[in-house]
# Entry
Amino acid sequence: MSNQRVPMTRQGEQALRDELKKLKSEDRPQVIEAIAEAREHGDLKENAEYHAAREQQSFIEGRIQEIESKLAAAQVIDVTTMEKTGKVIFGTTVRLINTETEEDVTYQIVGDDEADIKQGRISVSSPIARALIGKEEGEEVMVQVPSGTVEYEIDEVMHL
# Structure
């Protein structure tokens, strides 16, 4: 993995730290216990419990490495400490109004790993976020979507 810093919100960092703690303090000991228990059942070649536990252990260790790597490369950005300029930047929450339908949507611009459209969090590398970054409240933005182009007005930029 490159030495490139990856932007992450304070909440995203905390979620990864919480998952890492659970993997190390709960999941890893449970799978080690399951492997020991399965070993007691005899022949390992035909022991499905043993192979399942080893596979689970491999997954857990891989995920621990992945999270540690992400945290090492993270550039945590706490938008609540930044000056409110009305400009869309990483971490801000933006309320948009579709100029054609008058529908409004609210998105928080987050790191790639934190994105969850159902929660209103979009990746900083998504087409909508790329179109919004650097723009200010009141500006209109054209966003390329699969069904064509949508025009939004930036109604409000919030530092939540």
Observations:
- The chain has a mean pLDDT of 91.
- Residues 80-158 form a domain with the Chitinase A; domain 3 fold (CATH 3.10.50.30).
- The helical segments are 10-39, 48-73, 127-132.
